[in-house]
């Protein structure tokens, strides 16, 4: 077991040791990861790091002591709200990540249901089977039942979800997009269902909130998924994904300040009186707020459009390439995630081959499929990926099949 060294070491030694440790890590700078890291290039990495370092000691818990952070958070939240078509009076907060944002949206919905609908116990949330396990976690902690409803054509089955609602349903959920398939659920239909039932609709746009608006600006015909749909009451959107911010940054948005108030914690009294905090956190990392602010203002709308164009171009190349290799793409992805399966070769065998070739990606179990979450960097390496995938496929396809994939 390790223990704290008696004598400290100089930074130069530690830096060298840390570089050595990192040798065994996934080679994300070369675009070899299809998950975990969002690689938008070295310049953005420099901006992130410099901004993070500038405010790494400051604490967002104290907006009066650090009005700088309060101002940056307001601007980040304002930018997010405007990208997601929020109406006047909408509100939001920065959080530490998607799980945190989802947790807080559910907390707000629960407290709203208690205050406005008189609900108390045996509460449930109705969601498509494809929603992120963050919903399970939040429901475990808050003692809420999560009803995962089978999807239809990989998308939320609105009719089945409606049938699963009862008087204790506090929230409906749709993803934009869901993580497994990268597909946007029919949010407009879910909005109508939520309105007809008088239930809160949350859109989990953790992995889509900061890419979809720009993909739409770039000309794609995306279905409505944001506050433009009247039934949508809250949205989670991660800055540390397609917002390209440093890790530890997400946003949670509400249709009105009145709804956001249900998220607030008013705790105590204790010897310091009451502690009123907007989110679950006490200490809030200044670095994460500052890095998000700096990256957003460094890119601007034009910069994001360019980065997100690289992502969708990479996806289109991969989609065309894997289709040519005989794979079937699951659904019709429009953003940065794509999943695909081969009719003859199991995805797990291919996954292992690709792993040997240095690719750290994900795989689905329902059904077995390869999964990629693409970054701008992948637009440069899509060809390499496809070449390695073809070579991996050849390891399994017999000679009779091989010519079919040669083309
Ligand atoms: C990533 C993700 C989450 C969870 O976000 P974390 O930042 O990893 O906690 C939730 N929902 C979706 C759709 C996601 O892609």
Provide an overview of this structure.
The protein is 42% helix and 16% strand. The protein has a seven-stranded mixed sheet, with helices on both faces. Strands 10-11-13-12 form a four-stranded antiparallel sheet. A two-stranded antiparallel sheet has the order 8-9. The chain has two domains: 50-294, 3-Layer(aba) Sandwich (Aspartate Aminotransferase, domain 2); 300-394, Aspartate Aminotransferase, domain 1 (Alpha-Beta Complex). It starts with 10 loop residues before the first helix and ends with a helix. It has helices at 11-22, 42-54, 67-83, 98-117, 134-142, 158-164, 187-197, 212-217, 257-260, 286-324, 347-356, 378-394, 402-406, and strands spanning 91-95, 124-128, 145-149, 169-175, 200-204, 232-238, 250-254, 265-270, 273-277, 328-329, 337-341, 362-365, 368-373. The site of pyridoxal-5'-phosphate has 13 residues, from helix 4.
Shape: globular
Distance between the termini: 55 Å
Q: Treating each run of at least 4 consecutive H or I residues as one helix, how many helices?
A: 13
**CATH class group of the largest domain:** Alpha Beta
Along the chain, the helix and strand elements come as HHHEHEHEHEHEHEEHEEHEEHEEHH
In this entry the ligands are: pyridoxal-5'-phosphate
Rg estimate, integer Å = 22 Å
Spatial strand sequence of the major β-sheet: 1-7-6-5-4-2-3
The unreliable regions are none
How large is the share of residues in beta strands?
A: 15-25%
**Largest sheet: number of strands, sense, barrel closure:** 7 strands, mixed
Provide the structure class.
alpha/beta
CATH topology of the largest domain: Aspartate Aminotransferase, domain 2
What is the strand tally? 13
State the fourth-level CATH superfamily of the largest domain. Type I PLP-dependent aspartate aminotransferase-like (Major domain)
Q: In the CATH hierarchy, what is the architecture of the largest domain at level 2?
A: 3-Layer(aba) Sandwich
Mean pLDDT: 96
Total discrete domains: 2
Helix content: 40-55%
């Amino acid at each position: 077991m390790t223990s704290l060294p008696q004598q400290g070491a100089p930074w130069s030694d530690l830096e060298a040791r840390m570089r050595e440790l990192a040798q065994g890590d996934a080679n994300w700078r070369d675009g070899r990861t299809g998950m975990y890291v969002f690689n938008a290039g070295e310049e953005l990495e420099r901006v992130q790091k410099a901004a993070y370092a500038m405010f790494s000691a400051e604490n967002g818990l104290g907006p009066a002591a650090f009005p700088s952070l309060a101002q940056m958070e307001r601007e980040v939240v304002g930018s997010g709200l405007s990208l997601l078509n929020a109406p006047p009076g909408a509100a939001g907060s920065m959080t530490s990540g998607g799980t945190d944002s989802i947790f807080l949206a559910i907390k707000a919905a629960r407290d709203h249901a208690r205050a406005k609908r008189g609900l108390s116990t045996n509460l449930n949330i109705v969601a498509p089977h494809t929603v992120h396990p963050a919903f399970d976690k939040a429901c475990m902690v808050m003692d809420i039942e999560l009803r995962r409803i089978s999807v239809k054509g990989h998308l939320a089955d609105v009719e089945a979800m409606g049938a699963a609602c009862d008087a204790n349903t506090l929230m409906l959920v749709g993803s934009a997009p869901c993580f497994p398939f990268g597909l946007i659920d029919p949010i407009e239909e879910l909005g109508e269902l939520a309105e007809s039932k008088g239930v809160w609709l949350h859109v989990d746009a953790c992995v889509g909130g900061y890419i979809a608006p720009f993909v739409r600006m770039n000309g794609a015909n995306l279905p409505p998924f944001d506050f433009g749909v009247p039934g949508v009451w809250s949205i989670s959107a991660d800055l540390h994904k397609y917002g390209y911010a440093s890790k530890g940054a997400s946003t949670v948005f509400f249709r009105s300040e009145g709804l956001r108030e249900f998220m607030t914690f008013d705790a105590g009294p204790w010897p310091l009186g009451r502690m009123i905090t907007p989110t679950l956190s006490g200490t809030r990392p200044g670095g994460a707020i500052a890095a998000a602010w700096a990256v957003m203002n460094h890119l601007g709308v034009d910069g994001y459009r360019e980065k997100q164009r690289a992502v969708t171009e990479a996806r289109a190349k991969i989609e065309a390439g894997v289709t040519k290799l005989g794979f079937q793409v699951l659904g019709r992805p429009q953003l940065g995630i794509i999943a695909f399966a081969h009719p003859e070769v199991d995805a797990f065998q291919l996954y292992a081959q690709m792993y040997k070739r240095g690719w750290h990606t994900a795989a689905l179990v329902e059904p077995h499929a390869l999964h990629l979450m693409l970054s701008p960097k992948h637009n440069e390496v899509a060809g390499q990926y496809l070449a390695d995938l073809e070579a991996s496929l050849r390891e399994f396809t017999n000679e009779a099949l091989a010519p079919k994939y040669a083309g």
